[in-house]
Amino acid sequence: MRKLFPLLSVAVLFTGLSAFAKEGKEITITGEGICAKCGLKEAKACQNVVIVTKDGKETKYYLEGPVSKKYHGSSGICTASKDAMIKTKVVGTVEEKDGKQVITATTVEKAD
Question: Is 32 exposed, middle or buried (0-12, 13-18, 19+ CB in 10 A)?
Answer without folding.
Answer: buried
